[in-house]
Give the backbone structure.
Amino acid sequence: MQRKIDIIFNDNGLVRRGLTGFVVSLFISTIAVLVMDARAQMARLETASSDNIQWVLSQTETEIVGLKIAMYEARLAETLDLDELRLRFDIFYSRIETLKNSPVFDEMRQDPEVRSALTEIEAFLAEWVPAIDSPDPQFRAVLPEFAVDIDAAHRTSREMALAGIEFFSRTSDLRRTSVSRTLFNIAVLTVALVVLLLMVAIALLRLARQRERSATENRLTRERMETIISTSLDAVIVTNRSGVIEEYNGAAERIFGYSRDEAIGQQMADLIIPPQFRDMHHAGMKRYTEHGEARLIGKGIAQLEATGKDGKLFPVDISLASAQSPGGEIFIGFMRDISDRVQAEQALKRARDRAIEGEKHKAELLAVMSHEMRTPLNGLLGTLDLFETDSLNPKQRRHLRIIRNSGKLLLAHVNDVLDISRLDAGKMSMRKTRFDLIALLTEIIESQSGRAAQNGNRLVLSPPSPALHEVYSDPDRIRQIMLNLVGNAIKFTKDGTITIEAECQNGLNEVELRVIDTGVGIEEADLERIFGDFVTIDNSYGRSNTGTGLGLGISSRLASALGGMLGAESEPGDGSLFWMRLPLAPAPGETPQIDSAAPTPDPDLEIDLPPLQILMVEDNEVNRMVAREMLERLGHSVTEAYDGAEGVERANREEYDLILMDISMPGMDGLTAARLIRSGDGPSADVPIIATTAHALPEEVVAFRAAGMNDVLIKPINGAAIRRVLGSVFMEFAQDAQADDDPGAPVPLLNHTHLAELSADLPSDRLEAALRTFATEMTTFVAEIRLMLETDADRAAMAAEAHRMAGSAGVFGAERLTELLRELQTMAPDAPLDALLAKRRELNALWPETLSEIERSGHVSLANLEAP
Amino acid sequence: MRGMHMLCGAVMALIVWTGAALASDLPAPEGPVLLHVTGEISVTNQDGAAAFDLDLLRGIGAQTIETTTIWTDGVQTFEGVPLHDLTKALGITGSALRATAVNDYAVDIPLADAVPGGAFLAFARNGRPMSVRDKGPLWVIYPYDSAPRYQAEIYYARSIWQLDRIEVLP
């Protein structure tokens, strides 16, 4: 700024100074010219014109008078020679010659009167020269005439003198005027010059004051800058263009260790740039000076390494600028030792990495642990299935039931944790399909109404939009979420109403599902927390029905995974509202899958199979034991292989009807083993292979099928699952056996609608009593079938009892049980013993399944019932 | 430098010649007398006077100068002797010379004018002896052109023409 003003000022000053100089020199030269002119005029006055004109003219007259006198004297004395007369003539002659030739009289000779007089006198002289030069006697003879002419010449001479004097007085008057005018001009110009010089002096004075003022300002600014620099916490180093240090402040002394005296005049690069970077620095400086290409200068803060007197390297923040100084370009560098900051950053980074690592390990541990817990649980629950319950006394059966229920609860917890870790890892995949949302909600209302009634609650579905009959999402996940929300609502509401609403907010692009209760409500402060993991504060909604505190956390994650979100609003004392907003329209580019086209095995298909030779490849001993028991009870024989390699070897050696292949095994895994079996030409190369695994994502199933496997059996394995899968795989066998049945209409385990109607029609104590009676009879029937098979008479009784039981089961909507009992009724009179035993085993498995489904439906409390 | 040498030469010649003149006095004039010098002089050839004819003047050492004058038209060539040489030849020691013309015009020329390069006593103009009509027989002039300080009224007044007498004032 200061410099900019100076430049403008200087430019201005330059012009002004040039102009002033020009005007002054113009004045001086004009004055000089005038002075010279005046001097010339003075010179004329004192030289040429100074010859006394009057003297010359009067002398002319004097001399002609002298001639006249000599003339008279000559005529008076006749003896006198005429030399005196001649002399006087010559003197006069000489005078006229002078008048005629002298440049002094040039101007005067221009005067007409003078000129004619002079011409006349010259003529007189010329006329008389011959007479004058003649000898005396001749001359004397013409004297009288000469006297007359002299008189005439005298008069002429007189006139000439008068005219000349008048001319000269006029001329000198003109000259005086001219001189005086010149002098006046000089005076005027001189005064003007003085005035101008005064103005210049004033201007210079003002300029000087301005300069002084700006010099003071500059000094103050400089002092201020020096103070700022010297008190700066950052090192400030100023170098010239060749890198020599010119300025070096206190902070620089502290940071680099060199004193100011040591540093000034030294090469900056030698002092503070680490040796390995010096070449780079010089190259950079060269680039800058030659091409003006700056990488650091004026480019903001950069982080570099510097060194100090002790030779240690340390990181610095550096900001470089260049500026113009009187001595040329200078570079100003601000530097800050950032060792502490860099250390802190690194420590922070390490801590963060450790934390992330820890978190990862934790998640992995959680996943592995959950998985590892499922395997023994599988064994536990599977083994429980093997108890011949009919040979136990009621106390043992109760204990067994408690173990089974606890085991199931534990499995549910483990599944929750596994769900959370899979959802967090993004490994939970959604099976989206077209389904009827209204039917799903109705089913939930039906299944949960009984449970709601236990707390005196009413569970109602607000009439939803018909558009929701056909939506697209994952129905299993939505059911899981809604069951969780409804379960919570039931638990925290006493003698109130729980309403389920479903509303299209933007067509099917955003559907809001709400579960509204009139219960205790949630404190504002807890609203956010309840969606967190393991939230188990008292009375909290976070405590889901599974009791791990993960229920809402899982629901929230599932909602996100479905592209929606889960939220809650509540007034403590007035109830809560949980909402879930979901897109339920097929996403663009997503091919809707029609439910019926899904290649999922029909879960309800169970068929009679001939005894099979099964190869089981499984590394877990418990799993092997449980599965072998189950399969053998189904009449099959089992060969075990402990890992993939052994499995391949056995499959290549012998012919089996079926291979069960565990997927994750040490050494060769199931996928590889399946692939090897299929690619080989052993006797079992073409038999069905079923994968057994704890979890199977759709893409994994695709991989299993690509490896040549036919189906998947999800662990933990139970008898029903095994039967279903075997049935699915041996569909060819089944088709003949079930030719008379309707294969397109699989029979559900429990008709919820039917049970709900019954629950609505009957008082709950009557329903419970009826169910209790049926349960007792059913348990007894199952237990007695074995005895009945011993004799033919009993066979008829068995058919009758089966018929009676089928009727009772139909009352409660246990449709599959009903059908099984009817089959048994049909077969009882003449079927082989084996077939009947197989039916009994089926019944043995289906009955507890049905009972627990009835319990799950919530319509009837079975708390006082004994499980079979 | 050359002028200086010539001057030195002239002075040496003058000293030698003066010595000879002093030894044998001033010869009597043989032609018409152009100039009478009277007064404070130590060398004479008449009773208390030194009379010069043209030859005697030439004998002092004739020189030529060229100059314009305010009384003539154009550059004039004058032949004559420097007044300085004349005063040396006559051993004049007075303060001034009173010069008088044939028409009795008289003027005092200080002896200070009689220096080398100063007043000049001309006896011929443009190669011809000067008659009275041509401001003769003698005319005191100054080298106006080569020494402009002589272009002043006081020197113009001392430039006496038709000179025939000089009285050396004490």
User: Anything to note?
Assistant: Chain A touches chain B at residues 46-48, 50-52, 59, 63, 66, 87, 90-91, 93-94, 97-98, 101-104 (CB under 8 Å).
